Amino acid sequence: MRRLTCLSSTSARRHAESLRIANANDLTRARDKIWNRLEERYGSPELVELSLRQKLAAMSKIPNNDPKRLYELTDLLAEIQSIKDQHRYRNIMAYYDSSAGVNPVVTKLPNYLQNKWTTHASNYKKQSGVIYPPFNVFVDFLTDQAIKANDPSFDYSVRPENKVVNAPEKRKSCITASYHQKPVMVHNTEVDQKGVVQVLCPLHNTSHSLNECKAFQKKPIEERRKFMKAKGVCFRCCAVNLHIAKDCTESSITCQKCQSTAHCTALHTPGSYDASNNTYRTTMKSTSSDNEVRTKCTTLNCKEFSGRSCAKIVLIKVYRSTFPRNFKYVYALIDDQSNKSLASSEFFDGFGENGPEVEYTLTSCAGTFTTSGRRAGGYVAESVDGNSIMDLPPLIECNDIPNNREGIPLPNIAKHYPHLTDIATLIPPLCDDASICILIGRDMVDAHRVLEQRLGPKNTPFAQKLSLGWILIGEPCGRDAHWSDRVNVNKTQLLLNGRTSVFDPCSNYFNTKEVALKENCLFERTIEDDNRGLSIEDHQFLDIMDKEMIRNNNGHTGKLPFPCDPTVKRFLITRRML
Length: 578
Hints:
Elements (H helix, E strand, L loop, with lengths): L1 H4 L4 H13 L4 H16 L2 H14 L10 H16 L14 H8 L4 H18 L6 H15 L24 H7 L33 H4 L3 H11 L41 E2 L4 E2 L32 E8 L2 E12 L7 E2 L1 H6 L6 E8 L2 E10 L2 E5 L5 E3 L3 E3 L13 H5 L20 E5 L11 E3 L7 E5 L2 E5 L19 E2 L5 E2 L9 E4 L21 H13 L1 E3 L2 E3 L8 H12 L1
Parallel strand pairs: 4-11, 5-10
Antiparallel strand pairs: 1-2, 3-4, 3-8, 5-11, 6-7, 6-17, 7-10, 8-9, 12-13, 13-14, 15-16, 18-19
């Protein structure tokens, strides 16, 4: 009874003293009442669970260099496990058997223990077929890890060096020596002594292996191989030992990320292993015994697609809206740099369009010039599969549409790329009877709308699904080493901004402007009405200057004498003025 009245809590002591005074003549009854009061006040399942949860929340994260704090956590978890096993507290503390109760505790563990628990829990789920390991499995795991982390036999911290008689004075720390110096092995005739496997990470010198080191796995595969070779790490079991991969005694290894038996977790390459048939998809060398070499262009015939660069060209069926039976297959160039839709003379002749010609201004990189052509409307464009039907805008006759058939997408090109194989059958084969005779501009905006897209690795073609069909964009091989076999000799061209260039001006940019024709334009007013016009003599003088005058280092020179005409006088006057 005296022990009950010496409770540490002030409120609990007050309850005990009050009940003892009330039952001073019957101490047994007083003791029972005190126990019942304490059980009601402090022993309810809700209060016990709240108290344990607050203790867990008050604990901070355990650093890697303080393994002794693992004992504090394991003691608290053991207390929770003991209370949880009681029938009274089983229901209210059942959430500790799920990730909702364990994950807050895992966040307080060192990083290497978090990774170990993830691997341990995943293997337990696969073996037992449960949603999550029970709480007692987590407590046993953490208790075992606390014992290992605090075992003095595996304490790799640097200690003071002890001098040994007749020993070399040059010494290194025990950690550095274990990786850079090979220990001396003394073999008995009966006992084969092997080196002890070190579990330290050579990169961080902490108690985790390379299979669990996330920083090491983020490095490129070639850099990882060089590092392991320099540190003497076995490429098979990934342990710092006295053997290499061919002498490794490990019976079997399994990559924890792709379940491959061909490499360890430290040498895993993301997206490289196909677990269904135990082969690699993107590596250059196969793991089979025949050492088969696989390159990216093994099945791609680069000669077949040499110089080809796929563009926005789609095969469509065109007909008049009033006569759909009379249709023609043509290739249409989808050009968002043109504000009007154009068609070649072949298109107009094929449908027998003999309407009046319309004058318009065509602007491209080659310059701006005025031309004329037929104009037609009332045509319909239909996709090859018949799923999309669109009305074409009024078409203007133009014979400067690029007719480069090497830019037409082909299904054979899509078959050579994994990200395009599913749409290869949706791209029609090359139609020899169809020519590129329509250019669809921004006046048909629905034809430019991208409905779906297929993107692949860098420097590979990609596909887009437009309203009129699938298109491919990019060079088929994706390498800069394949060039066109054609040799083009270009003369000097004049660009739109007045600069001279040996390159051909861009012919894919069109800007048309309609000019209305007037029958009586004699008294038409223009912005040049107030400018002084050139006389006949002026034109003759300019013609002589263009033909006779030559510029050299001394200035402008010309042949003398000039023809005896009125322009000679104007030339002399102009010379005096200069």
